[in-house]
Design goal:
The structure holds three protein chains of three kinds.
Chain A: E1 4-14, H1 20-44, H2 49-59, H3 64-89, H4 97-114, H5 120-149, H6 154-173, H7 207-224, H8 226-236, H9 238-243, H10 248-275, H11 286-296, H12 301-323, H13 329-350, E2 351-361
Antiparallel strand pairs in A: 1-2
Helix pairs in contact in A: 1-13, 2-12, 3-7, 3-10, 3-11, 3-12, 4-5, 4-6, 4-10, 4-11, 5-6, 5-10, 7-8, 7-12, 11-12, 11-13, 12-13
Chain B: H1 2-32, H2 40-58, H3 61-85, H4 90-108, E1 124-125, H5 135-139, E2 141-142, H6 144-162, H7 164-174, H8 176-181, H9 186-212, H10 224-234, H11 239-261, H12 268-286, H13 290-296
Antiparallel strand pairs in B: 1-2
Chain C: E1 11-22, E2 25-36, E3 40-45, H1 51-58, E4 66-71, E5 74-76, H2 81-86, E6 89-92, H3 104-109, H4 120-133, H5 149-162, E7 167-171, H6 179-194, E8 198-203, H7 206-212, E9 215-220, E10 223-229, H8 235-243, E11 261-271, E12 277-287, E13 291-295, H9 302-310, E14 317-322, E15 325-326, H10 332-337, E16 340-343, H11 358-363, E17 371-372, E18 375-376, H12 378-391, H13 408-421, E19 426-430, H14 438-453, E20 457-461, H15 465-471, E21 474-479, E22 482-488, H16 494-501
Parallel strand pairs in C: 3-8, 3-9, 6-7, 7-8, 13-20, 13-21, 16-19, 19-20
Antiparallel strand pairs in C: 1-2, 1-4, 4-5, 9-10, 11-12, 11-14, 14-15, 17-18, 21-22
The chains are: A mainly alpha, B mainly alpha, C alpha/beta.
Chain lengths: ~375, ~300, ~500
């Protein structure tokens, strides 16, 4: 019996050169799909979706206050995302931006408390350097372990986040504790000189400018310099880079230092510009959200700016959610969902789906068609 | 006095190490099939909150455990869907899962933060065995989930190394093209392994919220999932060696708090740092033995399998 | 439905009108191919002619875009390799499908129906019995990673026999064997065919086809051009069918005297990827203006040797020197600037980066040259690249599009062009023509001879003994990390080199 079925089956066909337009469309589609999925989830969980999304909107882009808060949340995100992007470009999985952020804040605070009376510009510059140094040193530990001892960086960078947070926790509970904090883990407030100035009469501080400059500098490094070329080559293919005589160890250490320094500046900008002191819980997971932002931006420094703005909006919108009695954790789920869709959508960037009607013949076919060699063939059994 | 201190550390170490053991054994199954699951931490959190909520609602400890396993397995299914079917990057997907699951667990557990559970797993002495000097107290006066972990380790070892499905799973992790060529479904095997690993992670979470420190606090796993991933490398992907490692990590965790309890003056912040720093030190020490680890590590770990286009 | 009809013409396999397209190329273009039981049937063609694609369709790895497959008289539509295995098709791939940490017996058993619990010893006995029946020497309890390449191939054949394959396909099986091992393989093939099974032998080597096959089907550029009995064909005839024109088998090589030693390695000891000894006291000397060949079966330390010379693998002891300058402690970068050119076996992945374009790939070894301070001098890089692409006749649609889109021959030309453009004093080349078609092979060989004539010291590692014999001045033979001897290529004895490849030492020439 010959069973022939015609089934419509999906088939993945590889695209030779994925176009930029497809990439963009897939990413925007991912964000939209994530919002739809989140709405469905909230509906199923018995939450009113209207108020949730209107709170998200009014808390972020929908009001002047919200807009300022969105930019304020986006600033540290730009730094942690740049930190992640430059490391991931080299396939160096630095997931320790959170800890490096805290150590940057620690370095900046140490400077602010040591020389509170220095003139503003000098003190702020010193604080930026302190933040860079703190973040870079914290990244150097797993970086050096990776470069010289071959210890995979994923687990050490992650675990050092916990250690950094505990360290700052310790300081704000002991040496740097504000006597007027009424038992809360808060550091002493910074002097006026240690505080980043506001931009005009907005609530946004000068960290916004530093963030844009940092993104531009990283973009130039990656695109125009020999070092950027080497980072690209090492990220694409480590064996080829070694073959070409590039020092992998030196570049791992270099990139980890830069990555940590970027996250560290993020910590500096946050404590100096927004919090005005060091305290526990200075980050609602900027280091982790930075991974999502950087990945969505395809590790491109300039694309990070708008994506960080979107995620800044989500973070501030999440704060607004609490005013209507919902946990801001919803925002973390939304962040995760956006990236899930974007990652899954990547398949559509590299493959086209073709729906084909394929006639499938069962393994029992017609005998008799076989058995005769084609013209010119001369069977010769031995 | 100091002998007694050590004994209490060992007893507490086995109790504290069991959460690592569940998580690491699950991760070993997953990685043996060639899939890296960095979402362990998130799966444990979801397991912890699910177990706690179900116990809170129905006053049924074992139903809570079962629900936690199912919840962990469900997240495993999500991970498998992404990394196996959609061929996403396993590192980034795992990290995203941690963030997502962190949010999910926080959202789900909002109403029970700090609430006392109606029932918890308490130590049960096993007749005869618990009478063995030292060993009896360390291993046989524990809670029932610890005894479950003993059984699961043996069962996992037997499954992986003495059965045909175990052989198939290892082949998929080593050389998916070989397995595929002889008709073993790489996709199905990997889905099963990731879901099983997720179930174990959920179990580890339930152990935390129902036995080890019965409560629900957001992010209560505090990096234990990551330590379990380090433990898998330490154990060179063997469930039996994971037992030893898990108890060492458990003892380190227990040691700091015991020292504080007997009056040694260390700030609690540094005590809390101890397991993280110890884990990093362990990773450094085992990094010296690269050749052995390279042989032990599943060869296709972390790589999506794409059968050639046809 | 027939199960077994006596008679010489009974079809084991019948492929009709097979078409298979890949993005950009038609790999099989309306190919007919039939094999009878009891015969060894050679599938002859150049690299890229579509032989492996055709057999991948028969073995269920690919699905044809058009055409029919029938096995034993029944039309088949394989949706997976497993279905093909069940239909009695066994294929031994060029890249073996074996699980390294498992034992021979476990590999043979993998995927075959059996009990839930693994039965260790019983399985090994069954495998040992089967091996003996075919005169195949292999230890069933050994782990795959402990075996030589030839032994691994025998495990693959056992796997197919264990599944009672009625059709056995061998894809370029002799590429990894010594001449003697190849002869042994041929006897196994004849033995299998004599049991009323069919053996399909994929090859591009005419001598081997003439030696073992009953019939031969020639593929050229994806089309079947002829099917002949061995009796009615000869080498020249087959070569013409295969390439489509008259072929020269020898590249013209001028006689001249080599100069002073340029590249010397002394007493090299190094380990392989798994920490096992890979080089055991290797000493070689390549003079300016000569090509020194390194012959040997794959996996006998050749790759490690090139990597140690390039500085990519640390040596435990021993020295590497170029032009008398000791480079043993130098980084890869220092060796490059000391005049070492290196064309690795792994072209796309080590030598070139597949996802990047020609310019970025040319910059790879010439980064300093194209630097302006910290910045890249893009104009200079582009100009230099387009000059190289013209001079070495590299065909590419754009200097910016990924090199992975280029053909194998053009990829190798670009790689060689970049290495030669640095004006190396010594050149290490590994498997330069593997997988290339005849035209590209000739071009590459000519370039290597030009370098020799220009006074460069060339170390040429190849598994193709014919290539070594036609290009080299002297040939060193490696076995298990040792140099078994160095022989002059003129008047060298294939048999003797084969014995050395299998571990028999000889007096140095």
């Amino acid at each position: 019996m010959s069973a022939t079925t015609a089934a419509l089956r999906p088939r993945l066909v590889k695209r030779l050169l994925p176009s930029r337009a497809t990439r963009l469309a897939v990413r925007i589609g991912a964000v939209a799909a994530a919002f739809v999925a989140a709405a469905l989830f909230l509906l199923l969980a018995g939450n009113p979706i209207g108020p949730v999304f209107s709170a998200l909107w009014s808390g972020s882009f929908g009001s002047a206050y919200g807009q300022a808060q969105t930019i304020l949340a986006a600033i540290p995100l730009v730094f942690t995302s740049l930190a992640v992007a430059i490391a991931f470009r080299m396939l160096l999985w630095n997931i320790g931006a959170e800890g490096q952020f805290y150590f940057g804040a620690f370095g900046a605070a140490a400077v602010a408390y040591a020389w509170p009376e220095w003139p503003g510009p000098l003190l702020l510059t010193a604080m930026v350097l302190g933040g860079m140094l703190g973040g870079a040193l914290w990244a150097l530990v797993p970086g050096a372990l990776r470069a010289y001892l071959g210890v995979n960086e994923i687990v050490p960078t992650l675990l050092l986040n916990y250690v950094a947070i505990l360290w700052v926790d310790y300081l704000v509970n002991t040496a740097w504790r504000d006597p007027e904090s009424l038992g809360f883990p808060l550091g002493v407030p910074f002097s006026a000189q240690a505080t980043l100035p506001q931009l005009g009469d907005t609530a946004v501080h000068a960290g916004a400018i530093i963030a844009v400059i940092a993104a531009l500098v990283i973009a130039v490094i990656l695109r125009k310099t020999i070092w950027g070329y080497k980072i690209k080559v090492i990220g694409e293919n480590r064996r080829a880079a070694r073959y070409a005589g590039f020092s992998i160890t030196r570049n791992i250490v270099g990139v980890m230092l830069l990555s940590g320094a970027l996250a560290g500046v993020g910590g500096m900008v946050e404590v100096s510009g927004t919090v005005h002191r060091i305290q526990a819980d200075i980050s609602p997971g900027f280091g982790y959200t930075g991974i999502i932002v950087a990945t969505l931006a395809r590790f491109s420094p300039l694309l990070i700016l708008p994506v960080a703005l979107l995620f800044g909006a989500l973070i501030t919108g999440g704060v607004e959610l609490q005013t209507i009695g919902l946990p801001s954790d919803i925002v973390l789920m939304l962040q995760g969902t956006i990236l899930f869709f974007a990652l899954a959508g990547e398949l559509l960037v590299h493959y086209r789906i073709e729906w084909r009607r394929q006639a499938q013949t069962g393994s029992e076919g017609e005998p008799g068609a076989a058995g005769r060699a084609h013209p010119g063939a001369m069977p010769s059994g031995t | 006095m100091s002998a007694d201190l050590f004994l209490t550390v060992f007893v507490a170490g086995v109790a504290a190490g069991t959460v690592f053991l569940f998580a690491a054994v699950g991760e070993i199954i997953t990685e043996r099939a060639g899939v890296l699951n960095l979402g362990l931490e998130g799966m444990m959190l979801v397991g912890a909150v699910t177990g706690f909520l179900v116990n809170h609602q129905f006053r049924q400890l074992w139903l809570g455990v079962l629900a936690a396993v199912v919840a962990g397995g469900a997240l495993g299914l999500l991970h498998a869907l992404l990394v196996v079917s959609f061929r996403t990057n396993q590192v980034v997907t795992g990290l995203t899962l941690v963030i997502f699951a962190g949010g999910l667990s926080g959202y789900a557990g909002e109403s029970v933060v700090g609430v006392a559970p109606p029932a918890t797993f308490e130590p049960v002495a096993i007749p005869l065995l618990s009478a063995i000097p030292v060993l009896g107290r360390v291993f046989f006066r524990q809670n029932p989930l610890v005894y479950l972990s003993y059984g699961l380790v043996v069962a996992t070892w037997f499954w992986l190394f003495k059965t045909r499905p175990g052989l198939n799973l290892r082949s998929v992790g080593e050389s998916p093209e070989t397995a595929d060529a002889v008709g073993i479904s790489v996709t199905r095997t990997r889905y099963a392994a990731v879901v099983a690993g997720g179930g174990f992670a959920g179990l580890a979470g339930a152990y935390l919220s129902l036995a080890q420190s019965p409560s629900w606090v957001p992010n209560m796993t505090a990096g234990r999932g990551w330590i379990a991933i380090a433990l898998v490398i330490f154990a060179t992907w063997s469930p039996v060696r994971a037992v030893f490692g898990a108890y060492v990590f458990g003892c380190v965790e227990a040691l700091g708090f015991r020292l504080q309890a007997v009056g040694v003056d260390i700030p609690s912040f540094f005590v809390s740092m101890l397991p993280y720093l110890f884990t990093i030190v362990v990773l450094v020490v085992i990094s010296r033995d690269t050749a052995r680890r390279r042989l032990a590590a599943p060869a296709s770990l972390g790589n999506a399998y794409v059968r050639e286009e046809r | 439905m027939s199960t077994h009809d006596p008679g010489p013409a009974e079809g084991a396999v019948e492929l009709r009108g097979i078409v298979k397209r890949f993005p950009g190329i038609v790999a099989n273009d309306n190919v007919d191919f039939s094999v009878a039981r009891g015969e060894v049937h050679a599938l002859l063609g150049e690299n890229g002619a579509g032989k492996t694609t055709l057999m991948s369709i028969l073995s269920g790895a690919y699905r044809p875009d058009a055409g029919t497959v029938s096995v034993g008289g029944r039309t088949m539509s394989f949706r997976s390799p497993k279905q093909a295995i069940e239909a009695g098709i066994g294929m031994v791939h060029q890249h073996f499908r074996l699980v390294q940490p498992l034992s021979v017996a476990e590999n043979v058993l993998l995927g075959a129906p059996s009990t839930f619990r693994l039965a260790g010893n019983a399985t090994e006995d069954r495998v040992a019995e089967l091996a003996e029946a075919y005169g195949i020497r292999v230890n069933p309890s050994a782990k795959i990673w402990q075996l030589s390449v030839g032994e691994q191939q025998r495990v693959e054949i056992l796997k197919a026999l264990f599944r009672e394959a009625s059709v056995l396909i061998l894809d370029e099986p002799t590429a990894v064997l010594t001449p003697q091992e190849a002869t042994h393989l041929f006897s196994i093939m004849r033995r299998i065919a004599s049991e009323d099974r069919a053996v399909i032998f994929i090859s591009h080597k005419l001598d081997e086809v003439m030696a073992v096959a009953d019939r031969v089907t020639v593929l050229r550029a994806g089309r079947g051009v002829a099917t002949l009995t061995i009796g009615e064909s000869d080498k020249a005839n087959l070569a013409r069918l295969m390439v489509g024109r008259e072929v020269m088998f020898r590249v013209a090589r001028s006689d001249h005297d080599a100069g002073a030693p340029r590249l010397t390695v002394k007493g090299l000891i190094a380990t392989g990827d798994l920490g096992l000894p890979a080089l055991r006291d290797v000493t070689l000397e390549v003079r300016a203006g000569e090509i020194l060949g390194v012959a040997g079966v794959a996996g006998n330390g050749q790759r490690e040797l090139t990597e140690v010379i390039a500085g990519l693998r640390p040596a435990i002891s021993g020295t590497v020197a170029i032009g008398g300058r000791d480079l043993s402690a130098s980084t890869p970068a220092e060796r490059i600037s000391a005049g070492l050119g290196y064309v690795p076996e792994d072209r796309l992945g080590t030598g070139l980066i597949p996802s990047l374009g020609c310019i970025d790939n040319v910059m790879l070894k010439r980064t300093d040259e194209f630097a302006r301070g910290f910045f890249i001098n893009k104009q200079a890089a582009e100009a230099a690249t387009s000059e190289l692409v013209d001079r070495f006749d590299v065909k590419t649609s754009s200097l910016h599009s990924p090199v992975s889109l280029m053909s194998g021959g053009n990829i190798q030309k670009l790689l060689l062009a970049r290495e030669l453009s640095a004006g190396p004093g010594a050149l290490v080349v590994a498997q330069p023509t593997a997988g290339l078609d005849v035209g590209a092979t000739e071009a590459i060989r000519r370039l290597l001879l030009e370098q020799r004539d220009a006074g460069v010291a060339v170390l040429l590692v190849s598994e193709d003994l014919d290539e070594l014999l036609s290009l080299c001045d002297r040939i060193a033979v490696m076995y298990e990390g040792k140099v078994m001897g160095v022989v002059g290529a003129a008047g060298a004895d294939r048999e003797q080199i084969g014995l050395m490849m299998a571990g028999t030492a000889s007096d140095p020439a």
